[in-house]
Amino acid sequence: MEDEQTLRRYITCDAERCGQKHPAHRCSNCKTVYYCSRDCQKAAWKRHKVVCHSVDKMKRLTAVIDDLNQMEDITGISEGNAETAGPCGIYLEETIIGPIVFNKCKHAFCYACLIHYQACRRTSSGASCPYCRSEIPDLSQSMAARVSLITARVQRGDLSVEDRHQLLDQALADVQKVCDNGGPGMKIVFTHDRARLLSLRGESKVALQELQDAIPEWTEMAEKGAKIEAIMMKCRAMNLDFNEEVKKLNLGTPGSVLRKEALVQLH
């Protein structure tokens, strides 16, 4: 969409201490970072390669997947049983709601508690289990992978109408769960996924309208996000207090900005 493409002007170079606007180069492997020059890309590679995952590899996985139970192996998560999962250890809730189980360590947590926990504790080194600290997948990325896998399976075109709609309804439910519990940036990205799923379900007009309705909010949040990025660069260069500088500009409530990570996912 032409209106959506205007958001790209808020994406900046990912090289440390650069921040140049309108970067021309994009990582060809993961498609999630941008650089203004090959020199910046080369300088940032040592740090970036740790989190650089191949988009083409994921496409190959989705092209051959037949049994959607394989999603658990790819996403690293599965849905648990609330009756047997026990209490949630994040906010000490006695009743676990919408339990998510990590395949590696088998620990279960409330979906909403977990997505809030990971949003608050996300670091460049990845996520860890609140119980045992073993490495676990990022829940929002795992949910995005689930949606992508279902989309790829539907697009193969060999399903009955009933099976096709059943899978799309499952993916739409996953998207709604993220939108209900995640932050504004996460909601933006999954709104885009929701529109794609609606289009596959034959509701193209509804999908287009949802995207058009979201554009003004996206643009406003992107402008705030760009200001936040600029303040961060200024504070690093001049050793200023970030929180104080943000207050001066009155950028609204926490989480009301669209950061570059969410913008990149839209492209």
Structure commentary:
The protein is mainly alpha-helical and 267 residues long. The protein has a domain of 60 residues: Zinc/RING finger domain, C3HC4 (zinc finger) (Herpes Virus-1, 2-Layer Sandwich). A 3-stranded antiparallel sheet has the order 3-4-5. Strands 1-2 form a two-stranded antiparallel sheet. The protein has a two-stranded antiparallel sheet with strand order 6-7. A hairpin with a 5-residue loop joins strand 4 and strand 5. 28% of the residues are buried. The model has no long low-confidence stretch (mean pLDDT 77). InterPro entries: Znf_MYND, Znf_RING, Znf_RING/FYVE/PHD, Znf_RING_CS.
Shape: globular
Unreliable stretches, pLDDT < 50, 5 or more residues?
none
CATH topology tier name of the domain at 77-136: Herpes Virus-1
Reading side by side through the largest sheet, how are the strands ordered?
A: 3-4-5
Short description:
Residues 15-52 form the MYND-type domain. With 267 residues, the chain is mainly alpha-helical.
Features:
267 residues, mainly alpha, Herpes Virus-1, 3-stranded antiparallel sheet, two-stranded antiparallel sheet, 55% helix, globular
Summarize the SSE layout with pairings.
Elements: H1 2-5, E1 25-26, E2 34-35, H2 38-48, H3 55-64, H4 71-75, E3 77-79, E4 99-102, E5 108-110, H5 111-121, E6 127-128, E7 135-136, H6 139-155, H7 161-181, H8 184-200, H9 204-238, H10 242-249, H11 260-266
Antiparallel strand pairs: 1-2, 3-4, 4-5, 6-7
Helix pairs in contact: 3-6, 6-7, 6-8, 7-8, 8-9, 8-11
Pfam families: zf-MYND (PF01753)
Keywords: Metal-binding, Zinc, Zinc-finger
GO molecular function, one term: zinc ion binding
